[in-house]
Amino acid sequence: MVKIKRRKTMKGLIALVVVLVGLWVSVSSVLNLWKTQKQLSDLQGEVMALRDEDKKLRESEQYKESSLYIEKEARDKLNLIKPGEKIIDISGDMEVAKNSLKEKESKTQLSARELWVLLLSGGLN
Fold it and tell me: pTM here?
């Protein structure tokens, strides 16, 4: 009888160990799966961000290769003009327009040129 109880106890312990090992393997597999899915999700987000950045860089490169960009840069940085164009410098006219405004504060009106100079220079704020 004692031997039978011992065998049942040993069989029960072995079964318990097998179940616990199986449970541990299952839980660790699920945790590894969750961890891998999180990494995959993070990497997919990075891929999307890099694709967006790549698209913006390609669009910027395409614009910078266009004649519109080249013309704008030539005008802005090199002060180049098209044939027949004239450059009008109104930077000195701003003081004149402001002085005229002070002098003509009464009912007299400013000339159209003085108003444009003030408007473009931000002096009418």
Answer: 0.45
Q: Name the CA dihedral angle for 105, 108, 109, 111, rounded to a multiple of 10 degrees.
A: -100
Write the CA distances from 29 to 25, 106, 116, integer angstroms.
6, 87, 75
- Given a cut of 50, the residues of the chain with pLDDT beneath it are 106-107
Q: SS3 of 85, please? A: coil
Here the tokens at position 48 are: 């999307």
What is the reported pLDDT for 123?
Answer: 63
- Report how far residue 40's alpha carbon sits from residue 48's, in angstroms, rounded to the nearest whole number: 12
CA atoms within 13 A on the CB side of 125: 4
**How confident is the model over 1-14, as pLDDT tens digits?**
566 777 778 888 89
pLDDT at 44: 96
**Contact (CB, 8 A) for 110 and 97:** yes
Nearest to 113 by CA among 87, 94, 85: 94
Closest by CA to 98, choosing from 74, 118, 68, is 118
* Domain limits, the chain: 2-84, 88-125
